Amino acid sequence: MKKAIITGITGQDGSYLADLLIEKGYEVHGIIRRHSTICTERIDHLFNDDTLRDRFFMHYGDLTDSCNLASLIRQIKPDEVYNLAAQSHVAVSFEVPEYTAETTGVGVIRLLDVIHQSGLDCKFYQASTSELFGGIPGTAPQDEDTPFYPKSPYGVAKLYGYWITKNYRESYDMFASNGILFNHESPRRGETFVTRKITIAVAKIASGLQEKLSLGNLNAKRDWGFAGDYVEGMWRIMQQDKPGDYVLATNETHTVREFVEKAFAVVGVDIEWQGEGVSEKGYDKATGKLRVDVNPRYFRPAEVELLWGNPAKAERDLGWKRKVSFTQLVEMMVRADMELLKK
Question: Which cofactor does it need (predicted)?
Answer without folding.
Answer: NADP(+)
